[in-house]
From TrEMBL, chain A:
<feature type="transmembrane region" description="Helical">
    <location>
        <begin position="267"/>
        <end position="291"/>
    </location>
</feature>
<comment type="similarity">
    <text>Belongs to the binding-protein-dependent transport system permease family.</text>
</comment>
<feature type="transmembrane region" description="Helical">
    <location>
        <begin position="113"/>
        <end position="133"/>
    </location>
</feature>
<dbReference type="GO" id="GO:0005886">
    <property type="term" value="C:plasma membrane"/>
</dbReference>
<keyword id="KW-1003">Cell membrane</keyword>
<keyword id="KW-0812">Transmembrane</keyword>
<keyword id="KW-1133">Transmembrane helix</keyword>
<dbReference type="GO" id="GO:0055085">
    <property type="term" value="P:transmembrane transport"/>
</dbReference>
<feature type="transmembrane region" description="Helical">
    <location>
        <begin position="16"/>
        <end position="39"/>
    </location>
</feature>
From TrEMBL, chain B:
<feature type="transmembrane region" description="Helical">
    <location>
        <begin position="112"/>
        <end position="136"/>
    </location>
</feature>
<dbReference type="Pfam" id="PF00528">
    <property type="entry name" value="BPD_transp_1"/>
</dbReference>
<feature type="domain" description="ABC transmembrane type-1">
    <location>
        <begin position="74"/>
        <end position="264"/>
    </location>
</feature>
<keyword id="KW-0813">Transport</keyword>
<feature type="transmembrane region" description="Helical">
    <location>
        <begin position="142"/>
        <end position="165"/>
    </location>
</feature>
<dbReference type="InterPro" id="IPR000515">
    <property type="entry name" value="MetI-like"/>
</dbReference>
<dbReference type="GO" id="GO:0005886">
    <property type="term" value="C:plasma membrane"/>
</dbReference>
<dbReference type="InterPro" id="IPR035906">
    <property type="entry name" value="MetI-like_sf"/>
</dbReference>
<protein>
    <submittedName>
        <fullName>ABC transporter permease</fullName>
    </submittedName>
</protein>
Length: 299, 279
């Protein structure tokens, strides 16, 4: 009895020693910055005006300005469009790719690795790759269009196509992620189901819609939500391909917050934009955790 | 095992499917291959259309990179990524072990806090870090980058290492504890050696995340601590459109990533989805 008590006490002491440094460091490099961010969002802080960093006279001023700021409202709308189409294409194409590669073959297993390349590239390299593709002088895409006598507009500086150009690049970059997740889900489907259905005379399309799809729907939703969270971070593509333009056609909220803080020196106002973005991310994260738990409970 | 009656889905790949896979792979990777071939071309050749299928590759782009400020930025990238990986492992591995053996209340709340830290858009950290560094003089230093990178690598280590510790059977630890060994000795001499592959995979992922960073380095560095991704973008802005050099720089930045990440591809998903789903 008392021996076990001693072991428990020793274990608890060890746990405290093992956890404390991480918790302290996390508090200092993540907790404190978060608190600091909330505080600056309550001030009209501008870098050129140091005194304004402690001016809490009208703490909600920034948040009251937000709904009436057309650039902010527009940035949310641009973000929504980018996230919606990006996530939709990534989930759909990722699923098709997973179905195509879900087969037992040494060659295919080897080939799978190469399909992951776009996802593991540094995001700035992905942006450079698409910059090359979208620059008329040096692009095989424009050359091919020229051969076919199609006059292609400069995609990244066209009001109509700039956002599409970014969505294409973003889909290319993150397709492997949904592909990997769907493939993992496909591999857990027991063969007996489709074999039984085949014996009952079902065709391939029916097997897909009545067996495969219900099985992978949860993973489609979860991988889509992960991409939704990360789509808020799309920075290098916007930064390098369009710079938010033309006008503010591709100016997502993240980019607007960046311009506010580091171009216009409006630190306080930018902080409030960032807080709003953070709250949206937390809400979606809660949803993902909830979905994950429910899935584990079901399994 | 492979009887004549193999299932409809699991049967070995048909020729049609293999062709479809091959074509898809080539189409998907063509933008990436375009960058790669461009890095071996002279600027005249880059502007030549139709593009010659066979050309004599040149290393002049890489050579001119080597003579400029690029190697220094490469070293900065290496240092900040390695140090932040080491720091995150030293702090996070014991913490992950403690968490994996801890069923107390507050675990879920803590887990969620860690998840949010991973999910937060970088700008949320950049503004406070920028102001703080400006104040204490850590702007444009490798130390500053190491600290920022640890803010996302430490949660990653704590998340990724827990499942590895859970695979170590508790009976092993109990036997040693009964023999009078302290928990610290059990951790260092019995448990840790059993999870070495997990530590290696986690270390590589940490390194890659730090290496791939563009946003923090763009804002928190100027010239001294500039990292390779920022240096490549600077070619575009300040040295005109030297496409060959840009392509070579991009290829160099992605080289370590390609080598390492293919080594840990099994863990890529669990690293990205950290915690919410069991990869």
């Amino acid at each position: 009895m008392s021996g076990k008590g001693l072991v428990d006490a020793e274990r608890r002491r060890f746990n405290a020693f093992a956890l404390a440094p991480s918790l302290i460091v996390l508090f200092m490099i993540a907790g404190l910055p978060a608190i600091y961010l909330v505080m600056t969002s309550l001030t009209p802080f501008q870098l050129v005006n140091p005194g304004s960093s402690t001016d809490f006279s009208s703490p909600l001023r920034n948040y009251r300005l937000l709904p009436g700021d057309p650039r902010f409202v527009n940035s949310l709308w641009v973000q929504a469009k980018l996230s919606f189409w990006g996530v939709l294409f990534q989930v759909l194409l990722g699923m098709l790719l997973a179905l195509l590669l879900h087969t037992q073959s040494r060659v295919v297993e080897f080939a799978r690795t190469f399909f992951l390349i776009p996802m593991v590239l540094p995001p700035i390299v992905v942006a450079i790759i698409w910059k090359l593709i979208y620059t008329p002088d040096i692009s095989p895409l424009y050359y091919a269009a020229g051969l076919l006598n199609i006059a292609m507009p400069s995609l990244t500086s066209s009001v109509d196509f700039a956002l599409t150009a970014i969505i294409i690049a973003d889909t290319w970059e993150w397709l492997p992620f949904t592909f990997l997740m769907v493939l993992a889900a496909l591999q857990t489907i027991p063969d007996e189901f489709s074999e039984a259905a085949l014996v009952d005379g079902a065709n391939r399309l029916q097997i897909f819609f009545y067996i495969t799809l219900p099985f992978i729907t949860p993973i489609l939703v979860i991988s889509g939500m992960f991409r939704l969270i990360d789509s808020v971070k799309a920075f290098p593509l916007v930064f390098l391909l369009t710079g938010g333009g033309p006008g503010s056609v591709t100016e997502v909220t993240n980019y607007y917050a960046y311009l506010l803080a580091f171009d216009f020196n409006e630190i306080g106002y930018s902080s409030s934009v960032t807080i709003v973005m953070l709250l949206l991310v937390v809400a979606v994260s809660l949803g993902v955790v909830w979905m994950g738990r429910r899935r584990e409970a079901m399994a | 095992m492979s009887g004549g009656m193999s299932g409809p889905i699991r049967r070995s790949a048909s020729v049609r499917r293999l062709v479809a896979i091959g074509v898809t792979l080539i189409v998907l990777l063509s933008p990436f291959l375009w960058l790669l071939q461009m890095s071996f071309k002279s600027n005249d050749l880059i502007l030549q259309f139709p593009p010659p299928l066979i050309f004599t590759p040149t290393l002049q782009n890489y050579a001119s990179l080597w003579q400029g400020a690029f190697p220094a930025s490469f070293v900065n990238s290496l240092m900040s990524a390695s140090f932040s990986t080491a720091l995150a492992l030293i702090l996070g591995v014991p913490a992950a072990y403690a968490l994996s053996r801890w069923a107390g209340r507050g675990k879920h709340a803590l887990s969620f806090a860690i998840l949010v830290t991973r999910m937060a858009p970088p700008i949320a950290f950049t503004i406070p870090f920028f102001l703080f560094y400006r104040w204490i003089g850590l702007l444009d230093t490798v130390t500053g980058l190491v600290l920022v990178y640890t803010s996302f690598n430490l949660p990653l280590v704590i998340w990724m290492m827990q499942p590895f510790f859970e695979t170590v059977p508790p009976s092993l630890e109990e036997a040693a504890l009964v023999d009078g060994a302290s928990t610290r000795v059990v951790f260092l001499q019995i448990v840790l050696p059993m999870v070495t592959p997990g530590v290696a995979a986690t270390a590589i992922l940490c390194f890659l995340y730090a290496w791939n960073d563009f946003f923090f380095a763009l804002i928190l560095t100027r010239t001294n601590a500039r990292t390779a991704p920022v240096a490549v973008v600077n070619f575009m802005n300040y040295e005109g459109w030297e496409w060959g050099k840009i392509a070579a720089g991009g290829s160099l930045v992605m080289a370590p990533v390609l080598i390492f990440s293919l080594a840990v591809r099994r863990y890529l998903v669990s690293g990205l989805t950290a915690g919410a789903v069991k990869g």
